[in-house]
Design a protein that fits this description.
heterodimer, A: about 110 residues, mainly beta, six-stranded mixed sheet, globular, B: about 110 residues, seven-stranded mixed sheet, 11 strands, about 0% helix
Amino acid sequence: AQTVTQSQPEMSVQEAETVTLSCTYDTSESNYYLFWYKQPPSRQMILVIRQEAYKQQNATENRFSVNFQKAAKSFSLKISDSQLGDTAMYFCAFSWYNNNDMRFGAGTRLTVKP
Amino acid sequence: EAQVTQNPRYLITVTGKKLTVTCSQNMNHEYMSWYRQDPGLGLRQIYYSMNVEVTDKGDVPEGYKVSRKEKRNFPLILESPSPNQTSLYFCASSTQGFGETQYFGPGTRLLVL
């Protein structure tokens, strides 16, 4: 069963604008972790942001921030002031709190246009 | 430099010919894992290891074997590769499990003819 769903296979944004990538997940647990990973054309997987479910405050990392809606099981990524280097595949991921398992969404391919 | 290395980076082989993809990390991480990435499916976990001599199956373990004889190394073995194992493979490591940041290797592109 699909645990993590990314409903936007592809998106594009103009340089310097803001874009939001969607992610929903399915779990009955109350404690877990959520992540956004970036995969540029080099294929290297890079952590963008991490959120612990028991923390209500949304995580931020410079131009990257999340909108974590626990009741709705939604975890969207907002990229502000988009840069050409943000062009990449973005994966949303979920990890149970005490489980040795990690699930990834299918990915959203983001293109930043000059 | 802290890193996860994989070898080879690219491999073309034929059905049934045993192969090993090596993975090594220099961060003294406890956890290591293998994923395969396929279009439209994201990354799926193949096997993981919590420590030396401790391994367990992930979501898609069929056709793969692993071993963890040393903390730093976690090779992936395909004893009889088949075309449906053509994929992009990633090794990753983390300090204390999947709730922590995972550090990924550069990936291995495998083509099985």
